[in-house]
């Protein structure tokens, strides 16, 4: 009798195991960014839910992809919907025999739109656009977005375009997309490195005094950063994600303290360092606290060198270099 029970139990375990393997085999598989970029999706889904981590969101995407008959999926975006902890997840879906996408747009054809060229960011930011175009709607894939923008660019008489903004309009999956459009003879923008030394800093004045190669590392007031797009055309909210200037904190007394990035800070010599601990709700709160302490010591610039979470209480300890 005991042997019979053992045999039955083993058979049940085997059946459960086979069922699990079968279920796993049927689940849609998440693919790499490289594979997703090479394939054309047949649909795009968006859903909202409470997920503890990216793995949970991926599991839900897999189930929904399965329901749509997809073999593969790729998560394009995850972001918080509200303080409730809900996430909005956007994913592209692919069949096993998904058609391949052209690796990059070619000069005379962008998804079938003759004579319009899509520019990479590094090229687009070097040129001055003559206008912008905006399209909106439900796009099932990125190639569909490019197709719509390319058609709008062609209607404007553009030689090339660069997508500068692409946002979700609502939970239904609609999007607003804006692109700069360029003439064939678009003039070059005058830009400078975002890593340039502040001209009004001690380090900047010393470099200018030294002249030569050192002076070339100092920023020129009023010249745009090569990392920011043109401000001469289009509406600010459609074309700009930031002011294009160095991040700064304005204190209650009107004094402005600026943050420098890693590369810029490496070219400057700090005159002091501050370290403090506290409970902060955001990186903005951290920056404001650093700026207050920087102003107290007569600094104009700061660079946060380290942040670490304390094991007890959730407090954050911050260290920053200060510069004049």
From TrEMBL:
Alphabetized Gene3D superfamilies for the sequence: Flavin-binding protein dodecin
Protein name as it appears in the record: YdgH/BhsA/McbA-like domain-containing protein
Residues of the signal peptide: 1-24
Organism: Rouxiella badensis
Alphabetical keyword list: Signal
Phylogenetic classification of the source organism: Bacteria, Pseudomonadati, Pseudomonadota, Gammaproteobacteria, Enterobacterales
A Pfam family assignment: YdgH_BhsA-like
NCBIfam families (UniProt xref): ydgH_STM1478
Top-level taxonomic group: Bacteria
Residues annotated as domain YdgH/BhsA/McbA-like: 39-95, 127-183, 268-324
């Amino acid at each position: 009798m005991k042997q019979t029970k053992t045999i039955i139990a083993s058979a049940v375990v085997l059946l459960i195991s086979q069922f699990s393997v079968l279920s796993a085999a049927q689940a849609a598989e998440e693919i790499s960014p490289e594979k997703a970029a090479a394939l054309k999706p047949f649909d795009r889904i968006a859903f909202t839910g409470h997920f503890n981590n990216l793995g949970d969101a991926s599991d839900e995407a897999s189930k929904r992809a399965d329901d749509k008959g997809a073999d593969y999926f790729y998560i394009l975006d995850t972001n918080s919907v509200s303080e409730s902890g809900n996430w909005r997840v956007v994913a592209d879906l692919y069949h096993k025999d998904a058609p391949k996408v052209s690796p990059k747009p070619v000069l005379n054809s962008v998804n079938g739109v003759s004579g319009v060229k899509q520019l990479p960011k590094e090229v687009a930011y070097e040129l001055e656009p003559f206008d912008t175009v905006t399209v909106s709607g439900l796009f099932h894939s990125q190639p569909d977005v490019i197709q719509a923008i390319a058609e709008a660019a062609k209607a404007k008489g553009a030689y090339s375009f660069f997508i500068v903004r692409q946002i979700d309009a609502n939970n239904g999956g609609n999007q607003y997309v804006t692109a700069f459009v360029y003439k064939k003879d678009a003039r070059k923008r005058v830009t400078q490195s975002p890593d340039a030394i502040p001209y009004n800093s001690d380090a900047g004045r010393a470099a200018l005094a030294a002249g030569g190669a050192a002076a070339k590392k100092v920023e020129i007031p009023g010249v745009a950063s090569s990392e920011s797009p043109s401000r001469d055309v289009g509406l600010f909210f459609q074309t700009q994600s930031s002011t294009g200037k160095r991040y700064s904190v304005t204190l209650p007394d009107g004094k402005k303290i600026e943050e420098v990035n890693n590369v810029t800070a490496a070219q400057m010599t700090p005159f002091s360092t501050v370290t403090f601990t506290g409970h902060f709700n955001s990186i903005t709160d951290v920056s404001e606290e650093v700026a207050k302490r920087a102003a107290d010591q007569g600094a104009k610039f700061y660079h946060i060198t380290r942040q670490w979470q304390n094991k007890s209480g959730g407090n954050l300890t911050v260290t920053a270099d200060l510069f004049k």
